[in-house]
Batch of 4 targets.
Target 1
Amino acid sequence: MKLQRLASYGPAFVLTVVLLALWELYVRSGQISMFILPTPTAVLQALIENWDVIYPHTVQTMMETVLGLVISTILGLLLAIILDLSVWARRAIYPLLVTSQTIPMIALAPLLLIWFGHDLGPKVIIVTLYCFFPIAVACADGLLSSDPDLLRLMLSMRASRWQILWLVRLPGAMPAFFSGLRIAATYSVTGAIVGEYVGAYQGLGIYMQTSANAHAVVLVFAAIVVTALLSLLLFGLVSLIERIALPWYQGSRMRAFGQIGAKSRR
Amino acid sequence: MNSRVRLLLSIGLPVLLIIAVVGAFLLQQQRTNSNSPVTSATQSPQQTPQKLTKMSLALDWTPNTNHTGIYVALKEGWYRQQGIDLQILPYSPNVSPDTLVSSGKADVGISSTESIVADKATGQPVVSIAAIIQHNTSALVTLASSGINRPRDLDGKIYGGFGAPYEAAVVGAIIKKDGGKGTFKNVTLNVNAMDALKSHRIDFVWVFEGVEGIEAQREGVKLNVFPITNYGIPDYYTPNLITGPNQIKHEPDLLKKFMAATSQGYEYARTHVDESAQMLIDEAGKSVFPDPGFVMASQQFNSKHYADPGRKWGLQDAVAWHGYPTFMLDAGAIADAAGKPVKSMDFASLYTNEFLTQ
């Protein structure tokens, strides 16, 4: 099982290596200046050589991301439950939620800086604005789609509203919640970077900015690599927790996929 | 795995992550605090018995040799000797230092004559308290290989701008002065203009000789340089140190002390090129200057330009505060908050020498 799962990443691994090799060859062949597009090996080397400088920035960005993600998760869950309480709450709040996602962050971020200063606060707010929405919406949808037979069973046993929520509907909404959380985790690091880009003492966003101003494109790429790794790490962690928390869901999904695959192969 | 272990793990893993990240964050903060000499507790036995007053400074760009004097004064502890705990705010491309100063988020900032005139017009006045570089060292540049050898050849070419309201007026005036029509395409770039020039996306840019000019030299890129003051644009100060009318009213003594330390820093940088460049690199950090050689070369240029020989650093004259602002108003480059062009202004309120030690 373990080996099988590892093997399933094979194609992605091969494709990545091929793309990186092509990139390296293209730049080395002199088609484009190393100053404008550095080779992957140069990026890796720069990353290792400058790790002592990049590390504090990484920690800062990670702090903002994790804080924002935690707040988003709590806020998203709460909002989903509130949306679920009554039709009226849903009608009143849902449009506002959607509107919150239409704000161009690039315009809002500088204002947040003027209102709240250069510290952690504005960045955490931006991460939260990016992340709470997918969690809230996915979780609210999950709550709506509980198994009607189970609901009827609970009602027949005179379960209270909260008992139904706690015993049937929230567990039933968990797969949807994790889908939302995975999307949020992927966006979160980028959110923190956007927040830092407009002004910060420290963080990968401001590091990219200073490197770009110093014409050190290779360092910009190094920071991008770290950003991507952080995002993947968070994504992987959410997936792992999902696997641990919802074994029944994982199992049934795997089986379903397997069947489809088997059928199509025939 | 039974369900209790699963529950524990699914709560425990996120908690572990949070603890790890917060821990690393706090550790990092502790380390930077113990490294930097700025923490006020560590230097009590010095000759400054009074408590340090916090001051913040907003930069106009990422740290560069225009800022050397400030970093020298920081490194040498001259601000602390004046009782000031100076904090340099991180540069932000989207929030102007003028806004930070006039909204009180920063005590002092670095700006330029153009912005100061524009701020006054829109009713968010700031005041220039020192000229950091005494003469304008900016120029329009083209690639030497482009065959554009005079400003009048720029007609119909593409200009890579930075989105300021006065750019078109200044560039147009230069072309006309050289006998052209003053018509060109203006593309506002959010990327480094020199990179765009080198990749032939644009034909000419407006840059500082002491920064981009030196950089191109080091990269072996040949440029044609048209200094703007050679083509009828009145000389002016850029960059400038600024503060707000509120700060002048409420903390004039603090500003005086700030300027005393800052002058000391710039006067040192005028005569100690290599040492001051090294201090800039040390204080601003390795990540800002991947190429120390460039800083040295740029400092070599700027140290000569901070002030004319025999003149004190920072002093401003009425002549400079009349010529260029008048030119901008006449060109229609300055508008009020409602977007209407401003045609007259009290230039004397834009600057003061009163905080420079006489």
Target 2
Amino acid sequence: MERYELLKPEYISKVIGVIFISIAIYLFLMTGHTNAGLASAFIGIFTLLIIHYPTVDEDVAIAELKSGIRSYHNLLDDLNLSKKGVIIPPRNNLTESRVYIPAGKFKKIPDIYDEMTIISSGSGRTGVAIPSPGQPLLEEAKDRIEYEIEGKGVQGGREVMGHLSKGMGLAKSFSFRKKGHDVRIRITLDRYGDYCKNIRDRSPDICTRTGCPICSAYLTATSEALSSPLKIKNFEIEKSHIKYELEEM
Amino acid sequence: MEISHKLTLAMTIWTVLVLTLIGAQNTELFVIMILIGLLISRELSSVYIRPSIAYRLDAFIQVGIVIFIAIVMRRILSILELL
């Protein structure tokens, strides 16, 4: 059904703002209610300038998130790699977080550079190192909090995860715990639960290899906050809770 | 509900509440109370809002602070009987 241009939410908020400003002008010019006029002017200007509507519909954004990760994993499925990935934070010659997916068993992470995607450094150290699917979401959260999380430990991780959950609405809540080298993350999904299930149904290995963009944002935040590579050890789903067990390497 | 909508709703409720409590009597107090509301909402929402909204909110606060300084200056001048 075609919507009238003026009934779009972004225009409705502007119309409300203009109505309040008109009332304020009336109160200032025609009556002696200065405070009421000020209140009306303030509400009007605040409504006009502060109310923000996303420019992309949520359905379109979700479809876009799905298309990226699906094509990623279609490629990985053909390479016959291990089912468990390692999230690597920026270090040495690597300037952005990557997910290393080894081909078979491995003991040590090979040296990874920005320009390397296919890794073949001998002695069984072969695999792929792809940019973390959740990196753009994490970058957005970091830009918003204007706070560097690299090496800030559990507290820094919780700070940015709080923004991913409450600020960006990616999850209802989260829990991030570290004991020795073991790290546990629990993400409770809310409105993106169906998206997560849909991705999982199509590519069952997605969660243990890289995670979908939402889970990957949390995993990458953990790795960057702890400044150490994290191997995905275990993954569980319990109703709307997603649980990851990771190991510091 | 978007965070900007919650912010606008909260400030509208605060403004109406302050207007109800103060009425038409004291414009200076009314403006200062609005500024306090703005400062509280900026502080509480700082982690969750987009930088673009934060800049706009800061602009409101800067205008409020200028008005607040003017009110204080006026009071000082009236106490010193220079006004």
Target 3
Amino acid sequence: MTVADMKEMEERMIADLPWLSPIGALALGAIVCVVLAIVLPRGRQGLVGAWAAGAHLAAAGLAAATWLDRGFRVTMEGIFVVDGLALVLTGLVGISGALCIALARPSLAGTDREGEFYAVLTAASLAAAVLGAAADAALLAIALGLSSIASFVMTGYLRGAPRSNEASLKYYVYGTVAGATMVYGLSWWFGLAGSTDLRVVGEALRDAPDAAVIASTVLVVAGLAYQASLVPFHFWAPDAYDGAPLPVAAYLSVLSKLAALVALARVLALALPDGTAGWPTAIALIAAATMTLGNLAALPQRNVVRLLAYSSIAQSGYLLMGVAALEGSDQGLPALVYYAIAYAATNLAAFAVVLAVARERRSVDLDAFRGLGRSHPWWTAVLVLSFLSLLGLPPLAGFVGKLEVFRAAIDADQAWLAVVAVVNTVISLYYYLRVIAPAVLDPLPPGPAPRALRGASLPIAIALLGAATVAIGVGAEPLLDLADSSTMLMRGG
Amino acid sequence: MPLLTLAVTIPIAAAVLAAALPARLERAPQRIALAASFLALACLLATWARFDPDRGMQLVEEATWIPSLDVAWRLGVDGMALALSAMSAVLFVASAIYGVGPRPLTRAAAALILLLEGATLAFFLAQDFFLFYVAFDVSLVAMYFLIALWGGEQRRYAALKFFLYTLIGSLPVLLGIIALFLASEPQTFDMIRLAEEEPFAGTGVGASLVFLAFLVGFAIKTPIVPFHTWLPAAHVEAPTTGSVLLAGVLLKLGTYGLVRVNLQMLPDAFAKYALPVALLGLLSVLYGALLALAQSDLKRLVAYTSVNHMGYVVIGVAAAAATGISSKARELAVDGAVLQMVAHGLVTGALFFVAGFIQTRARTRDLGRLGGLFGPMPVYGTATALAFFASLGLPGLAQFPAELQIFLGTFEVYPAIAALAAVGIVITAGLFLLALQRAFLGETPERWRGLPDLGTRELLALVPLLVLVVALGVYPRLVLDVISSGTWLLGGG
């Protein structure tokens, strides 16, 4: 490469920078968080949270502006792809990240590393946004690594609690192994293609021996499947969610999961074009196993956080139906995008109410939800709406989401998967009702009323998320349009 | 003017208004409920005037909602929708006049009754499955709260049973709707198109499963034996108005669905299963009548006669679906079934009012303890006798022409079932006469001598129903001319 070429490349990359502004906002947000956390006195650490939330919202706003003003583009010599899929994910990360900060703030206020927590959370969001845009094996590995490290730290935030430590350690050990497995798989791809660019890998894998393609793909998928808690890499999720602070569980179950699924969709589409090695069927089988095992394991749970953990594993299965349909149908990607939006609002709403109950009643057992309708009608309304949305009843967000993935599966000749999903929906009624019924139907247990919670951020977050759960379903059209135009850029441009 | 849309939206808007009123306006909720229910009835009567009985589905009001899924705000009427929605509107006016229990309506009660009215009218008028299903579920929620908040001593148990049964019953309906949507080409929630195109024509496995899903859901709602066990508990514990609306309006949701979906959209599958369904109807007729015979609680007695009377509807619908029935007999059976729904709504509404009136006076509904009520309460006694005679199917009163038509229609394909079902009439005639004798005739015991006769509010609620019962009995063509199932049964507009 001559000096002139270098110069030209540099200019091209500088011209690309505006497309990376959402990711830049998160990166800048994380760095400033660290500085603020050091500079500000302990009583003012809430400002760090406000800054971090602001950075998240700025990222979401910049993603929207990029979409509207600049359009889609493959940037940085093909490393970062800024397309509809990436921008929607960035927007989701921005909005739900800010909401997670609002959820976390009441529990964190006054604890010793509050500011640092926000910094780590923002770093995790940065990793999630990069995961959604990465079209290069090296960048993918770095983003997954950053995401994992940030998640371990957040999971173990409650230093004094043995369960939090155990959860963090478990997550760390398994996560490191899974991450290393993926990097190993990516190294095979590099060996086969001579490049880390996933498009080049895609060209090379067409002609590579089947055994090598399948083996390396399994290794790569393992890392992302771990992050997205897909069967058989799901077992960490209930322990981690249960041990971690609840807002972190909410964060992991929504942002980390969706980022990993988007990355999985992109990796498969770029590196294994035209369904190389039959991956659509393999992914469909994983989807069926994930939703089935998640739902069956959720049935006996009495701990509502673990129940939600298994429920979110099952939801990964439904989301994965969109990925499985990517090759066979042009409805696969819109279904994935819409379901991701619906799931983010719904699952965060569910976690927000569970968090509020856990803070007030100091328990997340099913019994802690008895009589909630009498003491907190609005929480109960959001709880019921979010659980029914996870179940998939009209007119809530989850219904349209399920309909979209069912359509995609049938259009991609995977009708059997839609049937499995329908059966799973029926199974899931049982455990969603197990939480709803005592909350709505039971009288308040006797005993002194728990002290009321202070602070406005949690009630506001609950109200917003409840409203979103309904609005995304009733007003599905604009979001369906958005999902339809959330294309994935396949080749350079 | 979009009369149908107004009929649905006025009660719902009034419900919001009533709930938002300041508490010191004590009479306002009742007035709002009265005004809104009268307006809704007026809208439907104006529709009745514009209605052309020679055409099927007509006066369709359509507004786009979610075009990507072909979900739209579609309301329209054919004979069945118009007759049932008008009957419901009448019962809601009567309920608004009477209030919940003996008191005038509170804010919450007015809001719930109006919400229930909006939901049930939307259900009968909906020509879009999305709206249809949402209305189905909202009516369930509103009725749950009516029972749970104003019911008798065992109200929690009764409300729970009602809630669980009907929610679990609504899930198969939803799955059936999703299946119809996915199978249609291009995919749509438009019920008019689905009735015309019949995506599940034939008797394959898919058609059978979809048929059974709808059948189970609607059978629970109707209720058909053996899915009836929630009904007596709900009725006995519900407040008077709750019972009136539950029996008068909500039970029709089940049989309406049976005609609208199973008969119109899945005729081939229904033909295959017509005999078993007719036998279930016969079982409901006989078992309901025998159980009613064994009751001494007036509400329980009326509740079980509802099982019996809805059984005739099921038999009529099943006979209409059978292969080999002539079109004349089919129209006779369906016209009779729809007329029976209307007549039963009015008669049972009157019966539950009657039961409620004695409950508030004597604090008992036990026929063994009551006696000689004609003496102190001649007006009440006359009204009750009229309602009893109507319910046992006396000629000249509303249920006689309905049941006669059902028998005539059924006789052509299932003569044995028609003959056995007639036994049910004999049993109900016996039990009503027995009840009349025990509670009203003979010497008036000392403790009942001072009972006051009906007041103005009670008369205003009850008399219009009885007038309609007589009018329908003397001149059934009043409604039959509108129903004219021949114009809509086979789809088309």
Target 4
Amino acid sequence: MRGRQKDMAEGLSSFSFFQGLDDSALVEVAKLAQRRSYAPGEIIVLEGEPCTTVHFIIKGQAKVNKVSLEGREQVMIRLGPGDAFCLVPAFDGGPNPATVQASTEVVLYAFRKEDFLQIARRHPEVAVAVLRHLSAKLRHFVGLVEDLSLRTVEARLAKLLLRLATEEDVVHRRITQQEMAAELGTVREVVGRALRALEDEGVIHFDRHRIVIVDRAALEAKAAV
Amino acid sequence: MDDRFCFSEGEQVLPLISEEICTGCGKCVEACPAGAMALVEGKAAIVRPELCSYCGDCEELCPKGAIARPFEVVLQGRMRHD
């Protein structure tokens, strides 16, 4: 087995999608994969364009977003190592439903759509893994719809601040108010006012570039509303 | 370089200014209470970073949204790079 393809096969075996495959099947799948890199900010996939490729993230973070005609952004979901994207347009034949943009340097495996569909047909365990992955994403979107339609901006902001401060298994990052607005489905000025209101109530404190959660219980109560 | 995914202890964090969006109107320079900003080759820049207090007046007043302050969100008593 050539060295590069052996590396690819080993790399692919770390993805939950391919863990049910034996060595010979992994080698066959690896022959169809291309390794690609993207710089921070680079667009990987553009909303509305036909889907040609299914992607699996090895390294880095990407965001899936939609932008209105007025330029307002809504982040749908953030993706990291182990995640796949373009599964939806690959399976339903439609165009890319959203844009995927690299947040950091991203390295991924890319399969031609037709090749991946063939892999899923030949190996039912891959198809089941795709179903599991899409179910998890659906669950995320149910939560997002609930947040955007049933929660106030203040409650969504409280939930976001708690997540940023307490999640240990994600890449820690600094976030601007504009980026918070894109996650929360609002605009920067509203986020600014909501943050100042939290500071006035003594729930958070601005320490230069740090937003310090002073009263976690109060913030959790706001997030639950 | 904007490397908001990698924190280093002791680094000075400053507002980010997008050269692509900045039109060089100078409103941020006038607004900055610390005198930390100036126009450099027609674009806003933080020329006296030691004076910047991260107050956010530049971000609020920029008519194009070219300035953004990155924030870390932490629980009281816990700092990310500790």
